[in-house]
């Protein structure tokens, strides 16, 4: 592929990486990771609520990685309640998983920015070592994509397997018992998925630029050398 087209592809991949870094940073600070509704089970059983009456006992909940909000509905109107994961909820949530999610989000941002820098370096500079050239680009993209996948897996297990929404809903509740009525992953969670897909797309752009995947056998091993493969 001609050098100008390679520059365009690498610049495009660098822009994608920068957007992903901004998106991940914005997602970390929002409350839009999970949205759902919670049922005041105790109140509904006391009045044997069914049908439209049951709506008076269904509140809302939403939260992110650091803080959130729930609306308590027990038949007498909604009562909003703000909460923070640190340090309030550390005793009731799987803290190790939650901290790991935050850690991998940080790693994702770092390696996304590193990848962006190396994409631009490959576009306008002269790469001369393995990690400076296309092999390095594959590495940074693979690490960033893996971090995004780990974030989604860990957070999904925290929410679904460990019933995070229900634990939050029953935090400091003595008289009433709450049960998760519905929940879904919100915008910030899907931003992480989109970033993982973008990093996978970046690996395809590297391949489109004419560079073989790492560890693949060259077609003509007799004429290729390590330095020549990385230069363009």
TrEMBL record:
Signal peptide from the UniProt entry:
1-21
Any one GO cellular component localisation term in the record = plasma membrane
Claim: Cytoplasm is one of the keywords in the record: no
* Topology of the protein relative to the lipid bilayer: Multi-pass membrane protein
- Subcellular location, principal: membrane
Superkingdom, natural source: Eukaryota
Which Pfam families does the record associate with it?
Clarin-2
Q: Where in the cell is it found?
A: Membrane
> Keyword set for this entry?
Membrane, Signal, Transmembrane, Transmembrane helix
- Protein's UniProt keywords contain Chloroplast: no
Q: Which GO terms describe its biological process?
A: actin filament organization; auditory receptor cell stereocilium organization; cell motility; equilibrioception; photoreceptor cell maintenance; positive regulation of lamellipodium assembly; sensory perception of light stimulus; sensory perception of sound
Q: Which residues cross the membrane?
A: 97-123, 135-155, 189-209
User: Which family does the record claim for this protein?
Assistant: Belongs to the clarin family.
The name of this protein is Clarin 1
Which species is listed as the source? Meleagris gallopavo
């Amino acid at each position: 592929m001609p050098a100008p087209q390679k520059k365009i592809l690498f610049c495009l991949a660098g822009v994608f990486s920068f957007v992903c870094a901004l998106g991940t940073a914005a997602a970390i600070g929002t409350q839009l990771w999970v949205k759902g509704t919670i049922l005041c089970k105790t109140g509904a059983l006391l009045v044997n609520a069914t049908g439209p009456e049951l709506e008076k006992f269904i509140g809302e909940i939403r939260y992110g990685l650091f803080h959130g909000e729930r609306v308590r509905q027990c038949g007498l109107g909604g009562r909003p309640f703000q909460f923070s994961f640190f340090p309030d909820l550390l005793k009731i949530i799987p803290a190790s998983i939650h901290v790991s999610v935050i850690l991998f989000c940080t790693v994702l941002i770092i390696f996304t920015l590193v990848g962006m820098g190396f994409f631009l370096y490959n576009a306008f500079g002269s790469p001369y070592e393995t990690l400076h050239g296309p092999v390095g680009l594959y590495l940074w993209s693979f690490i960033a994509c893996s971090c995004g996948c780990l974030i989604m897996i860990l957070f999904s297990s925290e929410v679904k397997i460990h019933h995070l929404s229900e634990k939050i809903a029953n935090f400091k509740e003595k008289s009433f018992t709450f049960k998760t009525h519905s929940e879904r992953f919100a915008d910030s969670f899907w931003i992480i998925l989109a970033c993982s897909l973008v990093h996978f797309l970046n690996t395809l752009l590297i391949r489109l630029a004419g560079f073989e995947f790492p560890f693949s056998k060259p077609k003509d091993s007799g004429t290729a050398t390590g330095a020549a493969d990385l230069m363009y």
